[in-house]
Design a protein that fits this description.
homopentamer; mainly beta; OB fold (Dihydrolipoamide Acetyltransferase, E2P); 41% strand
Chain lengths: 114, 114, 114, 114, 114
Amino acid sequence: MQLGRVIGDVVATRKDPGLEGITLLLVQPLTAAGAAAGRPLVAVDSVGAGVGEHVFFVRGKEASFPFHPTEVPADAGIVGIVDHWNAVGSDGASVTTASTDARSDGTSVPPTPA
Amino acid sequence: MQLGRVIGDVVATRKDPGLEGITLLLVQPLTAAGAAAGRPLVAVDSVGAGVGEHVFFVRGKEASFPFHPTEVPADAGIVGIVDHWNAVGSDGASVTTASTDARSDGTSVPPTPA
Amino acid sequence: MQLGRVIGDVVATRKDPGLEGITLLLVQPLTAAGAAAGRPLVAVDSVGAGVGEHVFFVRGKEASFPFHPTEVPADAGIVGIVDHWNAVGSDGASVTTASTDARSDGTSVPPTPA
Amino acid sequence: MQLGRVIGDVVATRKDPGLEGITLLLVQPLTAAGAAAGRPLVAVDSVGAGVGEHVFFVRGKEASFPFHPTEVPADAGIVGIVDHWNAVGSDGASVTTASTDARSDGTSVPPTPA
Amino acid sequence: MQLGRVIGDVVATRKDPGLEGITLLLVQPLTAAGAAAGRPLVAVDSVGAGVGEHVFFVRGKEASFPFHPTEVPADAGIVGIVDHWNAVGSDGASVTTASTDARSDGTSVPPTPA
C-alpha cells in the first residue's frame, strides 16, 4: 500500500454500473516524510475518508475487496485512515507524522522529530 | 483509477477475437491540474466516451469487468466520463475542472480557481 | 494496452514448459506520435505479428488469455496488429499513423498531419 | 520481489476490517548495493520483521497469500527476512550484504567486497 | 516479460513457508542492447538459471505458475534462459546478443552487428 492524502473528489454521471453509489476521491501519494510524490489518482473509498486526511491505499484488484460481492471495476482503493506513522530517516532520526497535522487548507505540516 | 482525456482511436483488423466489436481509444493520462502526464495508452471503452472528453480509466484485469462474461484481453478500460473534479492544490486553493472545458480542438482549458 | 513496434525476437531452449511452441517477440513501446518510449519487453504473440509491424499489447495475466486453457507464464502479449491510429496532438491537430509507415529497415516514418 | 529495509510503521484506527490485527510496516526499497531507491511503501508483515531489518517483499495480490483464507486488501507484503545477499557489481566483483550490517540508527553500512 | 541477467542470490532463513526450498535469485533487468536498466529484483527460479546467464522473467502472479499447485507468494520468476536475441536498433541494423557473451566476471560483452 502507499501513503497518501485526500485532495479532492471526482463527479461522474455516466460511469460503469458497478461504480454507482461509490465515492471517488482524488488521492495524492506521499513520501515517508509527507511530501507529495507522483501523480494523483482516483480511488474508491470504503472507510469514509475526507479531504485533507492522510490515508493509505491499495492498488490492483484488491481495491474492490471491501465491496465484495459487488464487482467494482476499480484498481485503487482507500483501505485505512492514518492516525500517524513513524519513520526512521536517512539521518537515523525517528519522525512521527500525524494525520491531524493536515491543515484546513489541505496542505501538510512538515513533520517534526519525535 | 487515473484521470485522462480521450485523444484518439486505434484501428486494427487483425486482433484477438475477444476484442472484436470493442472500441479502442487512445487516452492521455492527466494530472489533477489537467495537464498531460506520461505515455498515452490504448483503452477499451464501455461507457461511450468520445475524443476530447475527460474520463477516468482502470488498469489491470478489472478493465475487462464491464464485458463479462466475455474474456477480453485488455488491461486498461474507461469506466467513467468525468463531469468535473475538485482538487486542493499545493497552495491550499480548491480548483474545479470540468469536462466541458475541453475545447473542440482537443486541447484543455487551464482550470480556474473555484 | 500500449502501442508498440516489433523490433526482434528471443530464442530460448531452456524455458518453462508452458512456453513451448510460443513465439517470443521483442516489442518497443511507442508514444502516440510513434516515438520509442521506455524499455523493450518480451511478449508472447497470438496474432502473427512480424518484425517492423505496429501492434498493441496487453500486460499482466491477460497476456495468457489467447492461449487458454494452457497456463502460459506470460505477463505481456501482442493482441492486435495496428492498421493505423488517430491522435489529437497538443496543438489540436489530428495525426494518423499507419503501420505501413514502418520501413523495411524497422525504423518508423514520422507521422504526417491528416 | 524487491529488497527493502523496514524503516517504520503505520498506525490506523479506522481501516478495512480485513486489516484488523495485521502489522503495517513502512519499507524502503533498496538497490542491490543496499542504497535507498524509490518511495517507501506500506506492507503487511507475516514473518515478524522489525525496524532496521533487511527484508524482501512481494507486490500485488500475492501479498495476501500468507493470510489465506482471510481476504486481506493488501498489495505489498514482507515474505522474508534477509540473512545476506550476494551481488556481482558492474565491475565484476562479488559483494555480500548482510542484514546485520544495519546499524541501530537504521542506516545501512556500505557493503564491502567479499 | 523482460530481459535480465542473473547477478546474485538472496539467502533468507526466516521466510514464508511457501518459499521453502525455492531458489531466490537477484536479476538485473536489461535493455534490448544488453545494458543494465532499472533496479535489480528478487525472482524465484524454476529453470535452473545461474549467475551471469541471460534470462527472461515474468512479473505478477504468473511467477508462481511453475510451482503450481503450491501457493508461492512471488511476483517475479525466471521462466526462460536466453540462447540469444535479435533486435533491430534505431539505425535499422539487426543485432544479435548471445547469452554466452556474458563474461565470467558477470559483465556483458557489447553486442556486435549481425
